[in-house]
Amino acid sequence: MSKIISGNSQTTIGSWALAVGGALASYGVDAHGLASEFNIDLNQTEDPKYRIKADDMGRFYEAALLKSEDDAFALTVARHTSPATFHALGFAALASNNLANSIKMVQQYSGVLSENASVSLECKLDQYWLTLQVPKERPLGSHLAIEAVMATMFYFIKYFQHVKNIQLVQVNFKSGVTKNEKKYQEFYDCPVVFSSQCNGFVFPLTVIDKKLPMANEAVASASIHVVEEYLSALKTSDFLKEVQKQIRAQLLMDISQETVAKALCMSVRTLQRRLIDLGFTYTEVVEQVKYSVAKPLLLDPKNSLDYVAQAIGFTEQSSFTRAFRRWSNMTPGQFRKRVRA
Hints:
This protein has 341 residues and is α+β, with helices and mostly antiparallel strands.
């Protein structure tokens, strides 16, 4: 099949996995092998369009942390990042007028980095509080990765934005005290509080409003234009995800356009138009979903071909075989043999 439709969950930028992989390799661990266990291809992570499911990324980070056997693994991850890690948003932040604008930019366009996390910046008692959050229902790894995200932000500010004399008031972590607490104290050069109510930094006003040495309004503006185009494409992908989700939910019942359009609170004509604008017909999306569901079912030898056919809505195995050949240029049986070979 020539057209690709992405998965149906929240995602994070692929280059974040590249930084984690680089840190992991520094401990002598096979980063590529571990990443593949969580459906992550590190060879693709330099492509700005490559996105990773947030759940997969969270679990990959948790596994990487365990493999490193280093409670301060987050600090190593930070040292394996660069402005290019965050693509256009990284360069936009780099060219911001001051740190406050840089952080607000990340806050506004945080969807580029992850659809799973949020950033807030508040002024309290003559101090700026920068807080990072992930939903409570996210896997453990997502919460652990917050420490790496924070270390990366600090590293970015200090070394790439050249605010080397930065003096934080305090750094807060929701996680418990680590045996490498001294490393964190040395890295941030300020009081570090564990088991806190939030994850974040406390900045003095003198730092947050200071003009950055690489400030360049033209570069920042051009980079933001690229960021906005990227987010627009991501939102387009979100609509496809919703259509896919509804089709999956109705796969064994009614996957008519009428049913899916009603679930999405739109008319059939609107559904058709939006899909056509994206280069798809409704039938193509349905077949993509059926194909994506059929493949993992075929990998289990306990599942008969008749069972797989019925599981994706075919009443006859012969119809399923013809459809699968059309999708993949091979029969279901040939697919099984080739994957197992």
